[in-house]
Amino acid sequence: MDTLSLHTLVYLAFCWAVGSILWARVVGRLLGADPASGGSGNPGARNAGRLFGAGAFISVFAGDAMKGAAAVLAGLYLGHPEWLVAAGGSLAVLGHVFPLSGGRGGKGVSAWIGAALAFSPPAFTGFAVGIAASLLPLRSVTLAMPGGFAAWTAALWFSGILPSS
Alpha carbon 15 to chain centroid distance? Predict the structure, then answer.
């Protein structure tokens, strides 16, 4: 498949556009408030939970994770090579951080989790184990993320998804 085809460019634009849907803003509008006006001002699941409660956290996390997964699953459905599917997932995350509408985006963690889980469920298990192992001594999910990313990368390498040379 020609990787520079119109078909490919439409797929990548779709990924960025889907990633630009900020579920904290959607949920906030449904609840009558803008998450950018309170808490940390971040349009993500943690701030939505802080402002609107656990139900909002779960809704925003799920919506943001699904957009990352949607980008990856669309690429797999269309038969794109793994590197292009990974690029599509990355663009969904970038869409969350730098939304097409402009303005402040989120950190992209939930979108990344959805994309990573859809890309390789076994490697995602490595991410979860890495987070858990890092969380024990660090006691902070934010600080434990690099351990999770390292374990996820190692799991991709050991599974053969990332080439060894």
Answer: 11
Task: Judge contact between 118 and 68, C-beta under 8 A.
Answer: yes
CB-based burial of residue 97 (10 Å sphere; 0-12 exposed, 13-18 middle, 19+ buried)?
Answer: middle
- Distance between alpha carbon 68 and the CA centroid of its chain, in Å? 5
Contacts 24+ apart (CB under 8 A), 79-83: 79/1, 80/1, 80/8, 80/11, 81/1, 81/3, 82/161
**Does the pLDDT at position 1 exceed 60?**
no
Dihedral sign for Cα atoms in the order 153, 127, 78, 45: negative
Pairwise CA distance, residues 106 & 102, whole Å = 12
Q: Report the distance separating Cα 147 and Cα 131, nearest Å.
A: 6
Cβ pair 14, 77 in contact under 8 A? no
pLDDT in tens, 26-82: 999 999 998 888 888 889 999 999 999 999 999 999 999 999 999 999 999 999 998
Q: Give the pLDDT confidence of 109-152 residue by residue, as tens digits.
A: 999 999 999 999 988 888 888 889 988 898 887 788 888 888 88
